[in-house]
Structures are given as structure tokens and as C-alpha cells.
Specification:
homodimer, alpha/beta, nine-stranded mixed sheet, 7 helices, 13 strands, globular
């Protein structure tokens, strides 16, 4: 994006169009381009890369951000990006930003996160894209330091000649601006959740299960997003839409030949 | 898996526990280990890596496969794998197989596919895992050639000392066994859908949208899964759970330094 025209920036999220996080994202990028918001009409956390194929979608124009065109969609974050490109913008935006998510999306969360799935969908479609998450689940979180980070990174990416499938997973520590140690380019930590379903019985005696789980990071590398966040850095993980394990491909080709 | 004990094989899918595909998968692996089925109680296509966090899950034992322990779950394919490990098996199985999906999951479909998300969830948890898909959407598809492919590949993987996060995306052409050209280890093709929402009006005059789209493959490589399938090979793509774009990481570190 090096042209002199105002870039078109698509804004979406997974916490829904009324979440404080998307309001802060809009404020952070408002002066950096022509902003259009297309976001879910209700929270969609944990939706991963789900798309709506079995029933139709609704999309309605909303007056939720001053002087900003905004639409709410009855589907998933991925549906929002698809509808934005095909039915709202009628073209690819110059950049897609997703978030600011209420809660971290570091390490393996990239795969469960609706925030990152929206950004990944944009990258698949050839739109440079960034997902932003703040390490604070509270609806009363202070987004002011995050707004500064968003503004700085969006300017940097707009100034680049970003590649077609450019995609960043950005996580921001929940500390004041002075305490942020810097921005660190990282790899995704090998971490996961140890599941533990809470087993209960309903008033009729039938069992049901609530998903709970403990986050476990066995990756001790100092180049990971988890390490960066623990040390008050903003973590930036470039994400690939090619999921091929190329090293394993070579191994299998050798092992299975002949 | 090189021990002499019978391996425990977890079977799941995204088309639901009553789909012909999972019935054929169970038949293909029935003699290769101790089989336990945990699958969704209804079709979950396009659910990607969605998890159920906002409401509880139900799980019920079903008599659907002769002499095979089987459970149906009210959630997504990923929920099924999590519940299977935590509440049914109380341990990690030796292998997880997912499918056989009704329809292809090559190229970028790996990210939308519930079949592959179930397999990926198992790989994240350290369980070697394979997702199988047949290039035929019909409920009357002939799965006999696919059963042979499944049996062959599962034996091969059980005989390996598979790595912790070992994950394969296997797609099978819909042709008779004699016409299958072989098994080919591939990379994921760079292909995508060109979305085109079908815009309609309900009886009250309000707009709604159905997702449609055309598959477009701009990747002309002969080492891709799309090429393999077009040439009647079974495509085997090893999939990584590390989504980091390592080449871009190096580039950004250099570009953003100082």
C-alpha cells in the first residue's frame, strides 16, 4: 500500500460489534484510512474458522461509531470478512484489522480464536491482515496502551509493500504504556490446554459437561510469543496460511518411497 | 506405536455419527486396534476449529456399530476429541482418525474443515492423527476403494514411531481401486474460494444471504494435493500445528530492527 489514496481498512472482531475492544480498534485506526466495520451481532469467541453454510445470513447497517460505516452480521467472524468483501466493499480492502480481542490469543490459541480466523480469512483472500488481542478478559480493561500499539503497527504495515497473504498475530500485555518493553517478532509457542470437563447433573439427573482447562506451556524458548508477553513485550507472530509441514513432507517422501 | 498391545484408535468425524463415511472408517480400522468412536450427534461441516464454551455439552452412549463402543456428543468435532480424551478414554489414544468426510478437504479447505480440525485437535494434544476425505459429496458414494486406502495408511502410521504432533490430511479420489494411481505425499495447494453470496428477500421484504462460491486454484505446482487428486492419486499432506511463517519472521526482524 504505497499509493497516495486513502487506504480502505476493514475492521472486524469476534466479541461482537458492541464490544469495547472493537470500539478501541476503530478509534486507533480512524485517522489512518477510510474505515468500514463489518462485525458479528453477538459474541463469537471460540468459533475458530467456522463458516455458516446451513442457513442464511442477515446483515444490517448500524449507527454505532460516529461517522463510520458499520454493519452487523448474524454469522461468524469469517462470514463477516466474506460478506464485507463481496457485498459491502465490492473490492478487497487494503488492510483488515481484527479485534481488539478481550483476552490473549498467543501460542495455540491462534487456531481457536475467532479474532485470528477473521484475519486469516482476509489473508487467504489476499488482503494483508492483523489480529490484535489484549491480555485482559475484562470488559472494563484499559485499552489506551493497546490503541497506541495498534496505531504504530498499522502505520508500519501500511507503509510496507506487504505481501499478498501477509498476516500478523499481535498480542498486547495488559500494562501501562511505560511498562511495555517493546515490540518483539516471535514464533508461536508450543503450548496447549490440559482439558478438564466439569461433569454435572441437570435437575432430571442427566449428565452434562462444561469445558474448562488449564493452559500449559512446555516451550521454554525465548523467541516465543508466550515468553515475550511474560516479559511485557508486545508479541508479533507472522502467520502462514500454508499449513504444510514441509520437513515432515521430505521425511515421508523418503520413508515411503519404493 | 511399536508395542505389542492392541493400539487404541479414536474415531471421529464432522458429518455426524450416523454418516456413511464414519461407518466406513470404522470398518476400515476395526481389525487394527481397539476402536472407540466419539462423534457429533449431527452434521458439523464448516465448523472449522470451533469449540463450545458458552453452553454445556451432552454425551450419550449409542449402539450404532456392532461391538464398538460409541458415543455421540452435542458439540463440535473438536469438542468430541477433547471429551474422548478426558471423559471416555481417560488417556490419550495411540491414534486418532477422522472422517471419512463426504467431500474433499484439500488445499485451503484444511482450515474450514471440521474433519481436519478434529484431527488437528488430537495432534495438538500429542496424538498422531489422520483426517480422511473422499472427493464425493453424495451420501450414496462408494467408499470401498477409500476403505482400502485408509487401512493401508493406518497400518503404515501405526508401524512408524510417529512424532508427537504427527498429522496427515488425506484426500481420496472418487474412482475405483484400479484407477487410483498411488499415494502421493504433497504440499497444500495455494487455492481459495471466490465468494459470491446469493442475495434474496424473505416474505417480509428483508434481505438475507446464502454463502456460495467457486473454487479457484491458481497454484500450478505438480507437488500439490490438488494436482495429485486431479491425476487420481491419493494426496497425503503432512500438516503442522506451528502456524508461524518463519521466513516472514526473519524478514520482519531485519526490517524492524533499529
Amino acid at each position: 500500500m504505497k499509493s497516495k489514496e486513502k487506504p480502505i481498512i476493514l475492521v472486524t472482531n469476534d466479541d461482537g460489534i458492541t464490544a469495547p475492544g472493537i470500539r478501541n480498534l476503530v478509534e486507533a485506526v480512524r485517522d489512518l484510512g477510510h474505515i468500514v466495520v463489518v462485525a458479528p451481532d453477538k459474541p463469537q469467541s471460540g468459533m475458530g474458522h467456522a463458516i455458516t453454510i446451513g442457513h442464511p445470513l442477515r446483515m444490517n447497517k448500524m449507527e454505532v461509531f460516529a461517522d463510520i460505516e458499520a454493519w452487523q452480521v448474524s454469522g461468524t467472524p469469517v462470514d463477516c470478512v466474506k460478506l464485507a468483501v463481496d457485498k459491502v466493499l465490492h473490492r478487497k480492502p487494503d488492510l483488515c484489522v481484527s479485534g481488539i480481542n478481550h483476552g490473549a490469543n498467543h501460542s495455540i490459541n491462534v487456531i481457536y480464536s475467532g479474532t485470528m480466523s477473521a484475519a486469516m480469512e482476509a489473508a487467504i483472500e489476499g488482503i494483508p491482515s492483523i489480529g490484535f488481542s489484549l491480555m485482559d478478559y475484562s470488559m472494563e480493561a484499559d485499552f489506551a496502551p493497546a490503541r497506541e500499539v495498534v496505531s504504530k503497527l498499522v502505520k508500519q504495515v501500511l507503509a510496507m509493500d506487504a505481501e499478498k497473504h501477509f498476516l500478523l498475530n499481535v498480542n498486547i500485555p495488559s500494562v501501562s504504556s511505560e511498562l511495555i518493553a517493546g515490540i518483539k517478532v516471535c514464533r508461536q509457542a508450543y503450548a496447549k490446554y490440559e482439558e478438564d470437563f466439569d461433569e454435572r447433573r441437570d435437575p432430571h439427573g442427566r449428565k452434562y459437561y462444561w469445558l474448562t482447562g488449564e493452559f500449559v506451556n512446555s516451550d521454554k524458548g525465548k523467541d516465543t510469543d508466550v515468553w515475550a508477553l511474560q516479559n511485557n513485550y508486545v508479541s508479533v507472530v507472522p502467520v502462514s496460511i500454508d499449513f504444510t509441514d514441509h520437513a515432515m513432507k521430505t521425511k515421508l517422501e523418503q520413508a515411503w518411497a519404493g
